[in-house]
Amino acid sequence: RSDPPFVYTMFGLLFFWATCMVFGLWSRLSSFMTLIMVWQLYGYDPIYFSGGDTVVRVYAYLAIFVDWGQAYSIDSWRRRRKAILGGAKQLPAPKRIAVWPQRFFMLQLACIYCATGMLKSGNTWADGSALYYALNLDHFYRVPMHLAAAWAHKLYITRISAWVVHWWEILFPLVFVGEALRGWDKDVKEGSWQGPVPRWTLYSIVMAVSILAVWTAPLWAKPLPLVLLALLIAADRLWLKPADKSGKGAVSWTVRLLSWGALVGFFLAAAYMADLGVLYYFTPPKKAPAWVQDKELIQTLASASVLAVPLLITTIILTMRAWTPRAYRIVRDYLLGKRLWLTMGFLMHLGIDVSMNVGIFVQIMVAVYPIWLAGSDIDAMWRFVLWRPAKPGEATRPPLPEKGLRRFGRKLLAP
């Protein structure tokens, strides 16, 4: 049907359930109904099959697994209000909720960025002219800026921006290295480190194998890995003991060996992809040295680099962790930290939104960023916002110089 009353009703239901999900009203039901209405809309009109709309569909599915209603929601407020009106002496303690749906959101964003960067394999991205062309497309730019774009390209501004964005997307999964190192250090400090949780590692392997199994299967079989995931989650919740008590025994070590085998297989596959990448996309310059002209040698070097570079980086990080803890923390929290990678992403999307008209793609991508923040990150942000700088001479801040240019310079540079 396409008559206006029916279409308006469908849109109204979508906006109603999406609003309920955003504000945390009937969170479980509203998340599921939002997914149904989103799928209904995209199935009704395929004109919405753009990149941003695909992201919406994927995240709408992942959202049904998140227990949104336990905090910052109307459902949470209603539970507390009910307890107070019921004469409770203290507010009910916050409920612990599963964190794995949040990890799926994070992994999905990393997959989007990395795949997008890897697919930018044309010459315009290699020479940095891609952004120049985008700024000159009349269906992209907000206002004509041909002269400004030409000068920015001539001065290497757009070229450097294109190269930075390209490699930022490709290397975005490095942020998980920082997350893993922080989690490792936290568990070691608390004395709770037992290695990767075998059960979850096994689930990851099963999911990866099931996805590969249906890669070329008929369309009806494509969703079967999702059904398998739901069964694994149900079995985990209903019958298995807590995951933090399952790290010992022969079965656990067998799963760990399988996980290490899967990791080795991943790098071998990456080395093979690097070999194919050089074979199909690398054209040696005509005036290049003889060893660059040898394509088979470059293929071998590319494959070896995929294996050697991660091993070298791991060795450097572990050495820094043991011998130079301060430098290690800088690398972990800044170079591999969320603040760098997400800030760069936010600035990139802001630049896209200001200079080009690409619909709501920017808003859709940035909307996922807050889910990367942990409770400690939010606390740190509030402390920074509410923090009052010490006055000169207060606490450990040195006093202002008595006179002269040093006093003027100190006042000019510091609050």
- Give a short account of the largest sheet: none
Radius of gyration: 26 Å
Which overall shape is indicated by the principal axes computed on the Cα atoms?
A: globular
According to DSSP, the number of beta strands is 0
SSE order in H/E notation? HHHHHHHHHHHHHHHHHHHH
Distance between the termini: 64 Å
Q: Count of helices?
A: 20
Low-pLDDT segments, ≥5 res? none
Q: Give the averaged pLDDT, no decimals.
A: 81
Helicity, as a percent range: 55-70%
Beta fraction: under 5%
Summing up helix and strand content along with how strands pair, one would put the structural category as: mainly alpha
Describe the structure.
This protein is mainly α. Among the domains are: 1-97, no CATH class; 247-336, no CATH class. The protein is built from 20 helices and no strands. Helix 13 (250-281) packs across helix 15. 10% of the residues are buried.
Put the structure in a nutshell.
The chain is mostly helical.
